[in-house]
Amino acid sequence: MTVRLKHRPEWRATRHKGRFYRNSLMLILLIVSIPGLITGIVMYQLVVGRMENEFNRMHQSQIENRAGNVDDQLAYLEMNLSHWAFEPRFGNALRNLDFIYYFNETQEIVTTLYVLQGSHPLIQSAQLYLQEPKPILFNRDYTELTDSSLAAAYQRYLTMGNHVYWTDWRPGSKTEAIGGAEATQDKGPNSVQEQSLNQSQEQTLNAAQGNPLVLVHKIPGESIHPFGALIVTLDNEKLASLLKTLTPYDEGLTFLMDGEGHTLISGDSDNSRPYTAFEQQLKEEVGLHKDSRSFLFRYEDQTYSVSYGTLDRIDSAWTYVSAAPLNAITSPVKLISTIIVAASAGSLLLGLLLSWFASRQIYSPVARMLHLLTPVRSDSESDRDRETAGAGLDEFELLERQWHELTSRSVSAHRQLQEHLPHLRTSFVLQLIQGHMYAYSEEDLRQRMSHLGFELEGRQFLLVQMYFTGYDQLQGRFGSQDKGLVTFAAVNIIQEVARAYFSQSSVMNFHNLTSAMLIIAPESESIKPQARIWAEELVDVIARTLRLNVTLMVNRPVTALQDLPGQLVEMEQAAAYRRVEEGSQILDLEDEQCFRNDEGASYPLGLERELIQTLRLVHLSEAEQALAAFMSDITGAGRTEFQVQQMMLQLLGSIQHMMLQTGVTPYTLFGGSNMYEQLSAIREPVQMQEWMVREVFLPYIEEIQSRSQEPLKQVVERTMRYIEQHYASDMSLESCADLEQMTPYALSKAFKQVSGSNFIDYVTRVRMDAAKQLLRDTAMRINDIAAAVGYQHSYFNRIFKKQEGITPSQYRDLWFK
């Protein structure tokens, strides 16, 4: 007997080994020989020179794009400040405003400055200076400038520049306005000459001191006689960081200068290197290359790619200059190309020797991977099928295809798990607290919850149940069938509020204006006080958003998951002790005061007798009023939901006893429904009252009325048949009443009650139907038709047009068109 061992077929590896071996050997030989030398020579001879040109071109493109970004940022600041300057709150009303008396306006201005300061990341501070009614400065608060020198310093902003201008002058600074924006009318010729001689030195000193740029807009924005100014000071460090983006690499120099060549701010990446001389020469070279926006500049045996451009500001034109050293990229390329040439020549021989060995060893991991990832094929699969499946593919292509398939399945499975995980978590917790998992041990429950992503080690559990009341007050916004929708909205609010308080929680939706939440917290935390704070916020949010009241039940914390179903039952039983008149309530099952019983609660027998008497008399409106008085009495102060339900059940029993006395069987009247069970399921007093009227009062009154109206119904039916047979003759209510031996008033009332229309309206409708039939089906004259239906001609035309909106002739013409 021969035993054949079943094993994984190795046909694929055997079939492809020759092809892969030859391809890998040829590829390795090609890689280790020629390309190394060619690459080194080409990089050394050609690439370095082209790299310099390409770097310069790339530098230009990057500089233009980033300079546009800087320009957009500054332009946005100008536009934003102009927008605020034209706001009515900064208008002429501020000129004579008493800011101490009108505290709200003062606070609004301070708040506006805070908003302006936060409107752009480059803004360091925003100030408002008012010259009138007295020197006042708004910054973080309201400040009266009692120091005359400081007031004069801020007054300078109103004499400098145009209505909107840039400057790097601040109170206490010696810097002049950018582009000569400062007013010089108070200076003599000698002062102007001294300023011209020392201007470069002052700008260098100010740049070293780091004076920030200031954007000033005089207010009111539309006035030619401003009395104040909005002063926005930029953050030098952030502006320098923004300017530094004009240099593609860490090395180099970037700076911004005004129209007179003074440096406004520098984005130098190496603050320790003295760039003063280098900066000065760059400025001179920029002046010599006005026709081109880029050039190569050599300084101290270093070649720089220099780019510059203009940023048109609201009152001047600034120039940005960016210089990046070419050797930052070309030096490594030269070194690497030399190393490549030397290493390629030295390793060529060794590579040829090792390539043969590597080509043999390289197949070993491929075979193992193929063995792991390729599925086992059955013995019945033919060789032709196998060859067709792998035709034109080597091992790597087969592995790639299999890997993509496995990855796609893994990603799809992970995505589906993430989509369904929240529902799985909620469903599991819902089944747990409802007691459907009583057969599982504590260890099994914890393990299952851990698999769903819950952290349970060293945790305690707190169960909270919520009842949403006051739904009847929302009937204008929601219908009677929208309870599930309202509950869904409330559950979403619960989840949002809970995220701010608890790291782990799960909210269950019961879809009947009730929900529950399981809170998982460390055992070391005092969870109930925190749950109390959360509950108060939740009650407030739901009251404001959904206009609902919340009865929130909090049980004691437990450490065992198996205790949760019993806690849910306790809370459902304790819910009957909520105070019906108190609106939203937070009840702690450990607090006995929340469930005290009012011994003084008494049943209103007098109101019950009054209510039953009105029902005996079949007076629906009076019965509804009596029921409202009864409900008002039993829902008084201190009454609980349990007490209200018991009194309503007693009232229902009394009403059914009265029905039996009047000959109405409640079982037959209510179709065999358990009315006590339906009433017990209602929690809100308003809904109890509506249910009592709808399900008890109305069926009983309709039954009594139908019994009393049976003879009248027969009289009305005979009268209606008489009208349909004698409508052509002259008839009246009195004549029909005489036929039935009734008074006209009694017949008219009965006719209205049974048929739903008046006697005259019914006669008119019968005659009009007959007239329209004659107009459609015969060629009779209008006068003859009027006589045939019991009308005179003139009255017939008038009554026909009143009923149908058109004359009889028009009706006939319309029908035969």
Outline:
The chain is of the alpha+beta class. It has five domains: 8-85 and 235-378, no CATH class; 89-234, no CATH class; 419-595, Reverse transcriptase/Diguanylate cyclase domain (Alpha-Beta Plaits), CATH 3.30.70.270; 614-707, no CATH class; 710-815, Homeodomain-like (Arc Repressor Mutant, subunit A), CATH 1.10.10.60.
Please characterize this protein's 3D structure.
This protein has 817 residues and is α+β, with helices and mostly antiparallel strands. The protein folds into 5 domains: 8-85 and 235-378, no CATH class; 89-234, no CATH class; 419-595, Alpha-Beta Plaits (2-Layer Sandwich); 614-707, no CATH class; 710-815, Orthogonal Bundle (Arc Repressor Mutant, subunit A). The chain is built from 28 helices and 16 strands. A hairpin with a 5-residue loop joins strand 7 and strand 8 (263-266). It is extended.
Which secondary structure elements does this structure contain, and how are they paired or packed?
Layout (H helix, E strand, L loop, with lengths): L10 H22 L1 H52 L17 H16 L4 E8 L5 E3 L3 E3 L3 H12 L4 E4 L21 H21 L4 E6 L8 E7 L1 H9 L8 E5 L5 E4 L9 H13 L5 E6 L2 E11 L4 E9 L1 H35 L1 H11 L9 H7 L5 H39 L8 H10 L7 E11 L13 H17 L4 E6 L4 E9 L4 H19 L3 E6 L9 H11 L10 E4 L16 H12 L3 H15 L6 H21 L4 H4 L5 H6 L4 H24 L1 H17 L6 H8 L3 H12 L3 H19 L4 H7 L4 H12 L3 H8 L2
Helix pairs in contact: 1-8, 2-8, 9-11, 13-14, 16-17, 17-21, 18-21, 22-24, 23-24
